[in-house]
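Name: C2 domain-containing protein
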Amino acid sequence: MPVSFLPPGADGALVDVDLEIVSAKGITAGDYLGLGAALKGSLSSSDAYVTIEIDGKLVAWTRPIFDTLEPEWNEKFFFKNVQQNSTFKLTLFDKDIDADDELGAAQFNTIHTIYDTETTFDLPITLQENKAGTINVKVGLVDADEFAVVQEVGPVRHSVHSSFTAGLLTMLTSKDDRLESLAYRVQLHNIPQFLPTDNEWNKNYPTIQRIFSPDYPESPVLRQAVMTQHAVIYQHGEERTKYGSIASPDDFFELVHNGRRSDKPVLFTYAITSKGWYFSETGAAFFKDMLSKHMLHSGAAFSVKYAGEFHIEQTNDDTLKLVIDNNSGTYAPPQEQLPQLQALMESNFPGIICEALDRDDEALIEAQFSAMGQAPSNAKGGLPALTHSTPTLFPLPSDESDLPENAVLDVELEVVSAKNIIAGDYLGVTALLKGQLSSSDAYAVIEVDGQIVAWTHPVFSTLEPVWNEKFFFKNVRPDSLCKLYLFDKDVNADDELGETQFTAANTDGAESTFELAISLNGRRAGTIVVKVKSFPVEPMRRVLFHEYGPVRYSVHSSVTAGLMTMSTSNEARIESLAYHIQLHNIPQFLPTEHEWNKDYPTIQRIFSPEYPGSPVLRQAIMTQHAVIYTHGPMNTKYGSISSPIEFFKLIHDGRRQGKPVLFTYVITKNGWYFSETGAAFFKDMLSKHMLHSGAAFSVLYAGEFRVDNYLFGEPKLVIDNDSGTYAPPKEDLPQLKALIENNFPGMTVEALDRENEDQQKTRKEILESWM
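Structure predicted for C2 domain-containing protein:
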């Protein structure tokens, strides 16, 4: 029976409904012993998505969330003119390459009593009358303006599928010059209202009779082959599918790269079914290939709503226009429905300029042939032009921008991307799935005047990484030498992939893009694209170079780390979280290294040369550090912290299972390493400072910290020097406090000595709460 929130007698009216599919818990497993789930510490999982039906009609669906039994979607849907007593049915499916498995369903009637508010509900999911978890939704509604049919409004969702297999079917290359192609699926709203009629396959088209006609015994086999190719091309996966939404015509044109590839216009072949708009780029060389056939996009459907081709044109005022037609020999949709097709596009992308033309239109045919040939010299679109520079001079200062005496520069540097870099790995599984025999997990290190100041996150399994990371530096000398080093991230030692360098100069606040040559051992090793913007400032006093802006972090979650501690994360899995925060300006606040504590007998066996076994033990700890802080697309979360609130949110406000926790930390020149530790874990290896330092002989600081409540409930970071391994002096506590406050402006920080009685008392209480 559906869950009902409708009071008696409240029917007949129309409402506008805002529905958010938030999350689900305890759902049925669709896959067992999958690789993605195993890497997350689970034996079973699902790639779950939700379909939405209103009064038996499928209207929308979420994206799939991979390898979990507790998916979180947080996707909003907007529906107008819904009958007040309508039934909403939410069905969960496990996304597979062939048929998707049903995981259960929940349903409810439209809500009458919560006008102009948003209410959250946990709905029970059932599968064959058995409990199959719960789904969390948020619902709000207002009265509809006037009588009309039910319609969905708001951003239009899309998925873009990139696969090596699809590239082999066409032998075409994507914008990244790889052996792959892009297939697009756009979840158009309200398709049945504009295109209510199905157009069957064209029985006058001899080429496709062998696939659809029952007169040919082989047709079921051929049709199944096309269906399989469709499933492969539109396969979903974390590493091959991009999900998003389109809120404006500009968003749509950006999605399809303004209808251009390799700086030439392209045609798109499309099919519209009840499930959305399927299309891909196709060019003259591919027209006889399977990917250019509409039946591949339709999944060999016997009928579609509409089909044809489209391209993007530029109007006289440089506005982009969608030109769409009915040029499909497979389905031959009638020209009489072109006005409805145009209205459908204009309804989904308000403000778009759209022209729907018949396949026999002479101007259309001319434009299509133009798309197959050379692009006009003044055509726009594609990647922005790059200014090539030598590796030693960039950017070149303008003649008019003479710097005042003693002036320094504030610099914004964006590390954008790299191409054709050296491979650090060969025959990797992820690279092979992308159609590559070799790849790198590349990151870039930034060095200014011989001092390493920042680095990007690694981008995995590619020779053309895209970072798009911005860095902000103050008080840069105009003649400072800046170097960029590329490395391949590995569990043990990272391999160097090359370097480039440039001299900082004034750009007068203008942003410039440069492509710099990378070299390794005197040989070319690809190129790296950077953007720079700088402007001069006149220092009031003696100033130091320093970095400012968001603080980057990585959070590492691994089954191995959890097994070392037997701890559980907030998600109650056998794993633990290890944090690495790239604090800015560490040497300015903590310039002195503190060596291991020679008065601490426990660690002498690891660090002292008097013990023959110390190198072996130290290497073992270094290996454990590498495992816990290993980087990977499935076990590492990357981000940045722009405020104290974001920091406290990152560490779950210093609580787990409703109780406060302690954190064990070390600070080295590479950043702030820490993890949660509780009483049960204090004698375990993960609680040792030497594990976080990688068994370093010295660190800049070490201790423990916790989160406390300050005035009016504001969180406060309480940090100390409680480390037997390194025993940093209490005299450095003010510099430690200043370092944290410099990185997180506005944070309340209290730095206490390990001998502080109140600190010891609170520490003891926290430990006892975990016993």
